[in-house]
Amino acid sequence: MDGIVARASLKLRAGSLVSFIVPQPPRAGPAAEEIDLDFLYCDDAMAAVNKPPGMVVHPAKGNWQGTLAGALMWHLERRNERKDDADSAEADAAQPVGGLSSVGGPTRPGIVHRLDRDTSGVIVVARSEEAHHKLAKQFENRTVEKTYLAITQGQPQFDRDEINLPIGIHPYQREKMTVRRDHSTSRDAVTRYEVIERFRGAALVQLSPKTGRTHQIRVHLAAIGCPVLCDALYSGRSVIEPSFFDIKEVAGAAVDPDAPLIRRQALHAASLALLHPITNERMVFAAPIPSDIERVLAVLRNA
User: Fold this and answer.
1) Which end of the chain is less congested by CB atoms within 10 angstroms, N or C?
2) What's the CATH class of domain 28-141?
């Protein structure tokens, strides 16, 4: 107002000049975007995708583009609109007919469950309302078998154990979750883990979450003193270089100690097993370890 930024509570005076920006109207849903996806499975009822790190699952404030939901819209929902393109028609010929479930609302077409932006790996989506309800029921009943791989900063004390600690909203940092007992936001959370390999200052751990709380694996590993490597939110590191492990050479060859090895949390949804929502057949989907996590493992193994 009158050339200065004013608060909404400011009382106006006669003759004051007020300028404002009209906010963007709320979006009905994600726009279809031509983004490559690694489909592990697809039929008329459901699909399984190997989500790359850095991809947000569904649109939210500040993340309307580049989402998995937008990519799914292009690959599955918009296929009938691309029939005039000979190349697209040929590629679509093997794609089962159908779109995406609308049960989750307009901003979450087909989305049954989530992975964090920087977590890679298997995620399943529903292509029909019936499939969505039946898949969601399996997640609700905790019958879905989820297996994750993580490189930890530090080593767990035990070779295998169960972490049974309730998780709630962090009291001071809204974007974080934390182990929190006897609070209105706290929910029970159980994660089983097994150490696959131990390194100097790190470990490769396989994890099976028995509940599905927000940031569950990341919070539980941080709670036992071994946060996920390069987890900016829970370990305080947003990039990892060889110097972090005091590595100067690998397999006898010198390495640049400051060359980044990984720039996101070293957490990967390696496999997911559930019952097909229509046929009731047991399905197992697996995603290979991505190159950035493999790079860290290669350095740790050969250092």
Assistant:
1) N
2) alpha beta
